[in-house]
Amino acid sequence: MYVLVTGGSGYIGSHTCVQLIEAGYTPIIVDNLHNSKASVLERINTLTGKTPLFYKGDIRDRAILDQIFSEHKIHSVIHFAGWKAVGESVAKPLAYYDNNVAGTLVLVEAMRDAGVKNLIFSSSATVYGDQPKTPYVEDFPTGNPSSPYGRSKLMVEQILEDVQRAETEWSMTLLRYFNPVGAHPSGLVYCTGRRGPPRIGLYFRQRLPNTRWHRRARLYSRGRSG
Ligand SMILES: O=c1ccn([C@@H]2O[C@H](COP(=O)(O)OP(=O)(O)O[C@H]3O[C@H](CO)[C@H](O)[C@H](O)[C@H]3O)[C@@H](O)[C@H]2O)c(=O)[nH]1
């Protein structure tokens, strides 16, 4: 069964492709390589014995999406393609709304026209905004995200909910995770991107008290000490 993974050569997308192959699915990746490298395909092959089909392209390019949907009988789409750096989104809000919101609109229209109506969207826990209580739980209401990145995720969630209400045959799933960190146990698949989240290991180390433990600490964030 074919699953289209947008942003599938990125950090979470590449782990997802490994899991999909191991579960018997055939992932097809569309990624513009803005924040990843095609070399991850070889590493996925080393781990699973299979190389995902790969299209270098942008989800805002309707023609490439139509080509993919016409060439393969796709069952579902897992949508990771997007920009994700909170700080950068404050400086470049238009780019974030264009990639994350407008890109998703093009994708959903192409899916609808191809009759593919199963979508899993990589959202973010930032949609909860600041809540008065911790720990956050799934059924908290969404809040006021504090950045254009967070707002772009919330906007997409709301758009998908509206589409699902209007056309009830859609299956929409929203993944709201907090900062993912770490690498595949093999060390072959990890966060290679140039754009955030920042080097979390380094961030923690800078905040450790200045003891010998601080000096000796080796923390692993992008699959290497960071
Ligand atoms: O318009 C775009 C923007 C990005 N990408 C690609 O999308 C992938 C995104 O992967 P990253 O490694 O940059 O991001 P993550 O896998 O860490 O993040 C994913 O999970 C996050 C949640 O923590 C956010 O949901 C984010 O949008 C989603 O991409 C990259 O390969 C990038 O090249 C595109 O193909 N098109």
TrEMBL record:
Ranges where the NAD-dependent epimerase/dehydratase domain occurs: 3-184
TM annotation in the entry: none
Reactions mediated catalytically: UDP-alpha-D-glucose = UDP-alpha-D-galactose
Taxonomic superkingdom: Bacteria
Enzyme Commission code(s) on record: 5.1.3.2
Cofactor requirements of the protein: NAD(+)
UniProt entry keywords in alphabetical sequence: Carbohydrate metabolism, Galactose metabolism, Isomerase, NAD
Pathway participation: Carbohydrate metabolism; galactose metabolism
Class of enzymatic activity (EC top level): isomerase
Family: Belongs to the NAD(P)-dependent epimerase/dehydratase family.
PANTHER family for the chain: UDP-GLUCOSE 4-EPIMERASE
Protein's UniProt name: UDP-glucose 4-epimerase
